[in-house]
Amino acid sequence: MNQQRRSQGPLLRFTKMHGLGNDFMVVDAISQPFRLRPDTIRDLANRNFGIGFDQLLVVEPPGLPDVDFRYRIFNADGSEVEQCGNGARCFARFVRDQHLTNKKVIRVQTAKGVIELRVGRDGMVMVNMGVPELNPPAIPFAADRRKDVYTVDVDGQTVELSAVSMGNPHGVLVVEDVDTAPVDTLGPKLERHPRFPARANIGFLQILDRSHARLRVFERGAGETLACGSGACAAVVAGCLRGLLDYRVEVELRGGKLVIEWQGDGTPVMMEGPATSVFEGQLRLPADSGSRRRKGSGRPHKQRS
Ligand SMILES: N[C@H](CCC[C@H](N)C(=O)O)C(=O)O
Questions:
Q1: Which PANTHER family match (predicted)?
Q2: Are 67 and 128 within 8 A, CB to CB?
């Protein structure tokens, strides 16, 4: 028994959530110690041997004076990233469901800035996703100057795409039909293309008319997901830059619809959509999962991935 107990780490409470089928493990790291190594995250993300999720979302105390929480995001491959739009909506629902706040407007610090979440009466959540970044070095995307559309060589094939950061990097292609788009073949090649030095989320955008579009996204660190909130924002920005979309667009993803608004250069992208809580659970972490407290410290050591 002792041997078995010694090999066991602490219990970790979590909530399983999704935004249009883009699914998350959400952890309150305010009321419980939390630190997971990338390999433990990968194990937990596994849909056969773990909990199964596209991203792990972590709620932490604020690190800045005028924000309510800090929001950390880890992909299924264990990589920590800067932004998750569907996750932001679930974050807002989670902190209210868990009584961590009763605010209607919640300011959240991410790795790349502050986003503002607003919970609506109809259960929808509005997110101010911030101003898109189009300057290549800041995306990051390798290009000698900013363009609305770049041509990229992929194994001898010339691909046209737009490059946009919503805090996280996106490449967006316009396609005739998302159902026949080469998501599985071109997605992974572009995700790791050398012109995206931090890798990228790759969106395949089908324009239906100036206010309706369809989108599939091959996500960095997770593969194709049923929906990508930051990807929908990046896709609308790309469509507007190309003169194909108006400022308010209904984006249909495989998991459902988002409404995205963008008034143009220098203005923030607004996203509205649902956030769903599926179940609450707890799991016994392995002793070496990285969630142990440092000797002598009152707070759990924060993972620096
Ligand atoms: N895979 C993304 C993070 C999750 C984004 C997505 N789930 C969303 O809703 O925005 C990245 O590596 O930047």
A1: DIAMINOPIMELATE EPIMERASE (PTHR31689:SF0), DIAMINOPIMELATE EPIMERASE, CHLOROPLASTIC (PTHR31689)
A2: no
* CA 2 from centroid of its chain's CA atoms: 41
Q: What is the ipTM, given to two decimal places? A: 0.98
HSE, side-chain direction, 13 A CA sphere, residue 255? 20
Task: Tell me if 179 sits within 8 A of 147, measured CB to CB.
Answer: no
Q: Is 84 helix (H, G, I), strand (E, B) or coil?
A: coil
Residue 100's CB is within 10 A of a number of other CB atoms, namely: 17
Is residue 60 within 8 A of residue 67, CB to CB? The reply is: no
- The pair of three-digit structure tokens given for residue 268, joined into one six-digit string: 């923030």
Inter-CA distances, 288 with 14, 26, 27, 57, Å? 19, 21, 19, 21
DSSP state of 179: G
pLDDT digits (tens, 9 = 90+) for 249-294: 999 999 999 999 999 999 999 999 999 999 999 999 877 777 544 4
The pick from 84, 110, 271, 305 for probing ligand 1's pocket by mutation, whose C-beta has the most ligand atoms within 8 angstroms, reads 84
DSSP 227: -
130 in helix, strand or coil? coil
Per-residue pLDDT reduced to its tens digit, 87-136: 999 999 999 999 999 999 999 999 989 999 999 988 899 999 999 999 99
Residue whose CB lies within 8 A of the most ligand 1 atoms, among 53, 192, 228, 253, for a mutation test: 228
Q: Tell me 133's DSSP state.
A: B
Which residues are near ligand 1 (CB < 6 Å)? Answer: 22, 54-55, 73, 75, 81, 84-87, 168, 201, 219-222, 225, 228-231
Of 84, 90, 233, 240, which residue is the catalytic one? 84
* Interior/surface letters 126-153, b for 16+ CB within 10 angstroms, e for the rest: bbbbbbbbbebeebbbeeeeeeeebebe
